[in-house]
Amino acid sequence: MTRLNGNVPHAARIYDYWLGGKDNFAADRAVADKIAQAVPAVATMVRANRQWIHRVVTVLAREAGIRQFLDIGTGIPTTPNLHQCAQQIVPDARIVYVDNDPLVLVHARALLTSSPQGRCAYLDADIRDIDAVLTDTDLNTVLDLSRPVGIVCASVLMLLSDHDDPWKITARLRDWAPAGSHLAISHPTADHDPDAVAAVVSTTREVGLTFVPRTEEQVAALFGDWQLLDPGLVPVLSWRPDHPPPDPTDAYYWAGVARKPASPVTRYGQTPPPARGSAPGDSEQAIDLQTTRTDPMTGDEKRS
C-alpha cells in the first residue's frame, strides 16, 4: 500500500477540500486555491460532478435494474456515498470501491459500510493496472459476474496521461463486463474555456500531478461501441438534471452513460447461420424471428 505523505498534494484530497471536507492537508489546499484562481467556480463544478454520480446511480438502480457497482477512483467518502444511493433503492446492492490513496483507504474502511442486506468492499489498487483490479479476489467475491455491473469512472480518467492509454483501460473494462452492464464516465474538458483549463494543467504539472482534460471526441471514444443512454454525451449539468441548468457549460465536464448490449440468443442457444443464397435482408429477418432480446432499460426478455 502507498504510504501517506501529507506534504505531497493528492487529487482525492484536493477534491475533498473543494467538497467542503476536512481530510486534506496544507499542500492540497495550496494547489486547490491556485486552481481556483484560474477557475473560480471549480468547487461548484466538482459538486456538480458529485451530484451527477448520484443521478447516475439512481437511474441505473431504479430504471436499469443494476444491483452491483464498481466505483473506480472513489475518493474520500462524502455523504451520500455511492453505496448509500444504490442501497436506498436496492437494499441488497453490492459495491466495490477502488482507489490508491492510503487516506482514502482508512476512511473507506471506517465509513463505507454496507446495509445489512448488501455488501461493500474496498480495493487499494491503481486503475493503471486494470488487470490487477479486475482479477482481485475481493472484487470477484463481492460481484456476481453472471449479472450486469454498473461501472463508474467519475473524474478519474483525467489522472491518466495519453501514455497510460485510458482508451485501452476502458476497453478492458468493457470486455470484462457482463452483457447489460453500464459504463458511466465524467471527464474534465477544455472545450468550454481553453485558457482557464490550460492554467489548471500548468498548476498541476508544477506540483507533479497529472491532469489531462479531453475533448468531446476523445471522451466519446472511451465508451467504444456501447450504446449511450439518453441524453448521450453531454455537459455534466445536462445529464438528466433535476432542474434545467441556466448554462450547461458552467461545469467543464463531459458526462455520459453507455450500456453493453446483450448478445442475441436463439431458442437453441446460438444464432443460426444465414440461409445459403439468401439476401442480407432475408437472413436478418430469419435471425430476428428466432431471437430473444433484452429490453435496455427494464432487463426483460422480449421475443421478436
Descriptive keywords:
alpha/beta; Rossmann fold; 3-stranded antiparallel beta sheet; globular; methyltransferase activity; S-adenosyl methyltransferase; methyltransferase; SAM-dependent_MTases_sf
Descriptive account of the structure:
Strands 1, 2, 3, 4, 5, 6, 7 and 8 form an eight-stranded mixed sheet that branches. A three-stranded antiparallel sheet has the order 9-10-11. It has helices spanning 11-18, 26-38, 42-62, 82-89, 102-111, 130-134, 137-142, 166-176, 194-206, 216-221, 280-289, and strands at 68-72, 94-99, 119-124, 150-154, 182-188, 227-228, 234-235, 253-259, 265-266, 291-294, 301-303. Strand 1 (68-72), helix 4 and strand 2 form a beta-alpha-beta unit. The chain is globular. Helix 1 packs across helix 2, helix 2 (26-38) runs antiparallel to helix 9 and helix 3 runs parallel beside helix 4 (82-89). The model is unreliable at 265-299 (pLDDT under 50). It has eleven helices and eleven strands. One of its GO terms (molecular function) is methyltransferase activity. One of its GO terms (biological process) is methylation. InterPro entries: SAM-dependent_MTases_sf, SAM_dep_MeTrfase_SAV2177_type. This is S-adenosyl methyltransferase.
